[in-house]
Design a protein that fits this description.
This protein is an alpha/beta fold. Helix content is 49%, strand content 14%.
């Protein structure tokens, strides 16, 4: 995870938040998702999170869930998704992360999936439903450690303090904090409860903090700056190109990235 470590240090040095943008492999189709990913990277994304589509994306709201469904309807496979990820990882200096659900990793084979991720240039995994305290031996976390992949833990404001400590012990790279409970996509209000939760995580974690779920406006970024090192945007970005012809979608993505990540 050398690229990721270097990028996190770069973000820390510039004293401005970094941006991790989320796309779904194969949406709206495989070639379009490749071109959209390149536009996102060229327009200022620090980190790209690519989701391998799954039939039951339990942490995702309607926008990303629909993107998963549409990608699967068009026949997007795990193999094709990994080929896309490999192409992008080999053509950018930005860290590429895989986000998916544990069923896919388990079916592929835990050790084989970690090896494949390392082989194609991936810097880390985000598996929000991985039951680290129910999987005997923490096989996936061990496999990530062995292959020098970050294992990004996801925290919610409802996570009990004692469990939060245990989860943080298992993470590497950075910790991903949900700005609110529920699924992705719904607009998040940054209130006193959010600030208290993020402050608690920041005090307990040795890792940089990413914050996502419902981020769509710069006013949210400004409110989160004191607490978050990385802003994560998915649904709002996908909305920019959903149901548009490719050329229009590429223009919309570039304009969105300019509004969201521009002059800070």
């Amino acid at each position: 995870m050398k690229k990721l470590t270097q990028k996190l240090q770069e973000i820390k040095n510039r004293k401005q938040p970094g941006y991790m943008m989320h796309i779904v492999a194969g949406y709206p189709d495989m070639e379009s998702s490749k071109l959209l990913a390149k536009e996102i990277l060229n327009s200022g994304a620090d980190i790209l999170e690519i989701q391998i589509p799954f039939s039951d994306p339990v942490a995702d709201g309607p926008v990303i869930a629909n993107a998963n469904e549409q990608a699967l309807r068009k026949g997007t496979s795990v193999t094709e998704s990994l080929e896309l990820i490999q192409h992008l990882a080999q053509t950018t200096d930005a860290p590429i992360l895989i986000m998916t659900y544990f069923n896919i990793v388990h079916h592929f084979g835990i050790a084989a999936f970690a090896e494949k991720a390392r082989e194609i240039g991936v810097q880390g995994l985000i598996i929000p439903d991985y039951p680290f305290d129910e999987d005997p031996g923490n096989l996936l976390i061990d496999a990530c450690n062995e292959k020098d992949l970050a294992f990004i833990q996801v925290l919610a404001s409802t996570t009990r303090p004692e469990r939060m400590v245990e989860i943080l012990k298992q993470g590497s790279g950075f910790v991903y904090c949900m700005a609110r409970t529920g699924t992705t996509g719904k607009k998040t209000l940054i209130n006193a409860e959010t600030v208290t939760y993020l402050s608690r995580v920041k005090a307990a974690s040795r890792l940089p903090m990413a914050v996502g779920f419902g981020l769509s406006e710069r006013i949210q970024v400004n409110a989160l700056k004191p607490y978050a090192d990385i802003m994560v945007v998915g649904s709002a970005l996908i909305n920019e190109y959903a149901d548009k012809p490719l050329e229009e979608g590429l223009i919309a993505v570039g304009e969105f990235m300019g509004r969201f990540t521009g002059d800070q």
